[in-house]
């Protein structure tokens, strides 16, 4: 059947003419869609939408125009809209993932800062001499021998005080972990 006659029948609402155009052009439309879209399902969706638009705009078609030109323009526009949508979705997903990663980094940083403050408070609870020895060891990075000489005490006393300080910190950290867990 001649295309001008098919268009005329289509304009009159003939579903047979529509079906004929669909059978004649759906593969070309689908092939064009697949060139630009990653998903077969999305390409099929665009094909359906193209032919829906053909049906909706049938009265605007001119009998001397090729339906192929109309279908190409509609397909191109829908494919690029779909492609733009996919790019925006990908960008959105990447933005969300990046934000989530950043928020985890920020949360971890806050948690680390809070933990550090908690440990500092625990250290402040140590008896004064033990706290002094512990700070010289851990914060000033002095050896047991240097601390003993500096404070005029035995190295064994330094070791015992550090061991007791660490035991106190571990016990309180364990309580914190049990409380949070």
From TrEMBL:
Coiled coil: none annotated. It comes from the Bacteria. One of its GO terms (molecular function) is DNA binding. The keyword Transcription regulation applies. Keywords: Sigma factor, Transcription, Transcription regulation. Residues 117-169 form the RNA polymerase sigma factor 70 region 4 type domain. GO terms for biological process: DNA-templated transcription initiation. Residues 21-86 form the RNA polymerase sigma-70 region domain. Transmembrane segments: none annotated. The keyword Glycoprotein does not apply. Belongs to the sigma-70 factor family. ECF subfamily. This is RNA polymerase sigma-70 factor. It comes from Candidatus Parabacteroides intestinigallinarum.
């Amino acid at each position: 059947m001649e295309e001008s006659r098919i268009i005329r029948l289509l304009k009159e609402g003939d579903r047979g003419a529509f079906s004929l155009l669909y059978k004649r052009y759906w593969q070309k439309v689908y092939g064009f869609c697949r060139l630009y879209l990653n998903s077969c399902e999305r390409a099929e969706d665009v094909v359906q939408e193209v032919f829906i638009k053909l049906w909706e705009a049938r009265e605007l078609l001119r009998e001397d125009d090729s339906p192929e030109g109309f279908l190409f323009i509609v397909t191109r526009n829908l494919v690029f809209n779909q492609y733009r949508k996919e790019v925006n979705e990908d960008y959105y997903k990447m933005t969300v993932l990046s934000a989530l990663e950043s928020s985890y980094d920020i949360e971890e940083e806050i948690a680390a800062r809070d933990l550090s403050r908690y440990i500092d408070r625990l250290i402040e609870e140590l008896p004064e001499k033990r706290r002094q020895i512990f700070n010289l060891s851990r914060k000033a990075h002095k050896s047991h021998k240097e601390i003993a000489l500096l404070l005029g005490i035995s190295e064994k006393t330094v070791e015992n005080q550090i061991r007791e300080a660490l035991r106190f910190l571990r016990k309180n950290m364990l309580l914190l972990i049990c409380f949070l867990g």
